[in-house]
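Tutorial, part two.
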Amino acid sequence: MINAFVRSEVKGFKGFIFSFVFCILYAISDEVHQLFVPGRDAQITDVMIDSAGAFIGIGMYHGLVNLRRSYPSN
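Running the prediction step on this input gives:
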């Protein structure tokens, strides 16, 4: 998600927030969907786990981008 926002010229803190909010909303929609699947139920803890994963993933993306910028290719 962060890569899509960066390529759309939404960068920096704004890109981070938009990506993170989008991922949280997607996690919530997934849990709502599970309410309609027999044998499954929605869990707020799943939303929290997905959100933590999104936060870590977005952070890793920024870290790798910054690392790549500090070592220019030949």
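The chain has a mean pLDDT of 91. In part three we will examine how such features are distributed along the chain.
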